[in-house]
Specification:
This protein is an alpha+beta fold. It has 13 helices and 16 strands. The protein binds one RNA strand through α3 and α4.
Amino acid sequence: MLDIRLIREKPDFVRERLATRCGGDEKKIDEVLALDDRRRKILAEVEQLKATRNRVSKEIGALMAQKKSAEAEAKKAETRELGDKITALDKQTVEIEQQRDSLMLQLPNLPGESVKIGQSAADNPEIRTSGEKAKLDFKPKTHVELCESLALVDFARAAKISGSGFLLYTGWGARLERALIQLLLDLHTGEHGYTEVSPPFLVNRDCMVGVGQFPKFADQYYGVQEGNDSATLGKLFLIPTAETPVANIHRDEILKESQLPIYYCAYSPCFRGEAGAAGVGTRGMIRVHQFDKVELIKITRPENGREELEKLVANAERVLQLLELHYRVIQLCTGDMGFASSMTYDIEVWAPGQTQYLEVSSCSNCEDFQARRMNLRFKTEGGENKFPHILNGSGTALARLFVALLETHQQADGSVLVPAALRPYLKTEKITRPK
RNA sequence: GGAGGGGUGGCAGAGUGGUCGAUUGCGACGGUCUUGAAAACCGUUGUGCGGGAAACCGCACCGGGGGUUCGAAUCCCUCCCCCUCCGCCA
């Protein structure tokens, strides 16, 4: 959520920043301002009435105590209609607030001023690359071919169990997935200073609103129903990312400044509807309804948000370096950034079988946008309550990492060489077809 | 699923219609005393919104929402959450 004071004081600045997102949201600012203005006018009026009522009620109390009931009754009659006016004005205020807030919840975050202005992914600047595209002296197989020949993923039976877009890992495939999760968690907890948490995979509506998934994108997520009770529908949702529960851990709290920064990492499966998304229905593991991910979350002082984002990206990059994969880091332009973010880096890993880069991590500083939505603050040494910055990044997403790993480290004989860093976890140097 | 008991300030815990935004204790912070510390004593100690240059003033908040009343932490309705016991269950 944007700061209503900022909108009030610098509406032109807010409009200009919103316009860089190409979503047309800058047009809603006038409406927000009009509602805010009306709200404040009514509030001033109703609060004055309430002050009168409070004063008279106290006088009545005093009269009653002195047994002057006739005078008390007279004062009661005097203020009786005051209550009706107050009720009516209160109702108006609530309505206006609801309108204002529902508009505010639909407004995306302002892109940072250093972020490149652009329309789409084509405008995203490349920041750096690491390593080289694998030079294979044979025709590389795709991950689908490797998964089938090495019996790592049973696509057909996954579809039988759950439908298309789901994966059934088998044998070395299941072990590889588990080994990767373990490696990533150990890396981030052991070397990067994150505290591991294991959150619920079902969350309530408040969490979804808190990080910005609701209300605007409610159609992209899975909701669940308890038993046959359709009344429970819409109360719990399958998490699209561990960001949802983990960023909400401190919702509605006032942290001590000395607690910051907080670093959390969490493994979770991620559930996404992906209705209408590009690439839906393509074979393989690139776009699926459920995938595993290790997520990184930071809660920091506002002044440190910027540098903490750089460190976060570096933490995620380390994963790819350890797995000896070629990747590039890009920064999303204003038109391509997510709803809640003020600045985002994506990490894309090279997949030789696909001959394309795959997004395996998206690292964002949402600044105080989410903190406002979830009313998370910290108290400064000076006793002032401030909104912290909340950052999130994948460290990293697994299904696509799995793809890049297979396609990069495949051998001419059809086996897959396991990078050294992963061997202690997978306990083999090479993945071959089981007997 | 059945039965019962609860949700009050950082914590504990009073308060059942009228100066209650809330007694008190603990904790925390500031001060006095002390070489220093402890103890003792004194004081301070929630959040949000609106107005104001500021000092400050007003309004709201006792799990959430609604109602009764001149007036609600207190009465009524409703929802949520927690605890205990029984049943079921990984």
